[in-house]
């Protein structure tokens, strides 16, 4: 009887160890893929700088936003979501630096302009990734997080649409606006929960409207 209990405990310990080992390998794989995915998208963004401007404006920053949404959503913990989002953003910047030969100002154009705009974009991307992870909560906080992530993405579109804004892109309409609308709508649908998606959408709209009023008043 005692021997059977010991064997059962040992068996449970082996299973716990195997489960922990699988989880550790999953975390490591997620971190590495986040870094390399950021580098890949950053390299594509740098290549597009030498092509038609309209193509680059349709790629940036929507591809980077989509990347951190996926990374945040697939993270296994809050801390790992923060780390993976930072590594993906770092990978993007590193790839841009390498692709442009560290030429001052050139790499930053692929992330949205001068140093201040780039710093804000980096913070925004990391925040979107973290909120995308928090949106997995099955309560009201998850709905608010989903709306916050979509709202932060919407701010990028408002920056590009308003004349005089730091990231204003002439000719924002119609294609840029369509992609922005599709991205924000897709984020609400994928991150939100059932009918609570209306709550997430309302949060995104409130953030966007507040930012619009703020910029219009400057």
Overview of the molecule:
34% of the residues are buried. Helix 1 runs parallel beside helix 4 (78-99). The protein is mainly alpha-helical. It is built from nine helices and no strands. It has helices spanning 2-48, 53-59, 62-74, 78-99, 106-109, 115-134, 140-161, 175-191, 197-217. The protein folds into two domains: 8-134, no CATH class; 138-218. The mean pLDDT is 81. 79% of the residues lie in helices and 0% in strands.
**Helix percentage range:** over 70%
Provide the low-confidence segments as ranges: none
Largest sheet: none
Topology, number of strands: 0
Strand content: under 5%
Q: What sequence of helices (H) and strands (E) makes up the elements? A: HHHHHHHHH
Query: What is the number of independent domains?
Result: 2
Number of helices: 9
Radius of gyration: 21 Å
Q: Separation of termini?
A: 79 Å
CA-based shape:
globular
SS content category: mainly alpha
Estimate the mean pLDDT confidence: 81
In short:
With 218 residues, this protein is mostly helical. It has helices at residues 2-48, 53-59, 62-74, 78-99, 106-109, 115-134, 140-161, 175-191, 197-217.
Provide the descriptors you would attach to this structure in a database record:
218 residues, mainly alpha, 2 domains, 9 helices, 0% strand, globular, transmembrane, ABC transporter permease, membrane, transmembrane helix
